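Hi all, posting the design record for the shared folder.

TITLE: backbone redesign
STEP: 1 of 1
STRUCTURE INPUT:
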């Protein structure tokens, strides 16, 4: 096990990016540290990637079932996911779930920016990857607290959503094919 630490708080996207950059594993999975998702669900995220002989799956995205959040948070999330889904057309009903699985190299090829963790399904899809959705369990928060209010998340999210929509419109999905014999 390796322990990484940022000198100053950089947010979830920075933490995920630093962890993926530092890992030596070909497949990575993410799990929030608040205890809301059980680690026993992690195999749901890596199995599809390991069972994909053609390596067409770019992302396995967890989608929370039986959400254990306040009604206000669930309503705000439902609205945000509907708006994001309408604009980005990524087919994801719960982009806010912290449980994700992906290949290290495909993640590191994505554009890196603050709050990118909320847009991984759209970013992977824009690069031509298949997205697989799996249902994962959800429990009340055990530790920590959310860094955003619904209003704060919406204020940041509007700019991010516009920026990601622009990135997707400009995305290139051409990949080289090795013709070496």
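Okay, here is what came back for every position:
SEQUENCE:
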């Amino acid at each position: 096990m390796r322990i990484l630490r940022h000198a100053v708080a950089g947010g979830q996207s920075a933490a995920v990016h630093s962890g993926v950059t530092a890992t030596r594993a070909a497949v990575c999975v993410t799990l929030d540290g608040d205890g809301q998702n059980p680690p026993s669900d992690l195999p749901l995220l890596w199995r599809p990637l390991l069972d994909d002989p053609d390596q067409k799956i770019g992302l396995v995205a967890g989608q929370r079932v039986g959400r254990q959040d306040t009604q206000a948070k669930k309503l705000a999330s439902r609205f945000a996911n509907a708006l994001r889904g309408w604009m980005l057309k990524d087919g994801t009903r719960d982009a806010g779930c912290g449980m994700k699985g992906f290949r290290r190299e495909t993640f590191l090829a994505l554009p890196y920016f603050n709050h990118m963790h909320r847009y991984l399904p759209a970013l992977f899809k824009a690069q031509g990857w298949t997205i697989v959705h799996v249902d994962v369990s959800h429990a009340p928060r055990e530790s920590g607290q959310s860094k955003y209010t619904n209003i704060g998340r919406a204020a940041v999210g509007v700019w991010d959503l516009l920026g990601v929509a622009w990135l997707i419109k400009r995305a290139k999905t051409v990949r080289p094919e090795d013709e070496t014999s």
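COMMENT: The radius of gyration is 16 Å.
Let me know if anyone wants the other runs.
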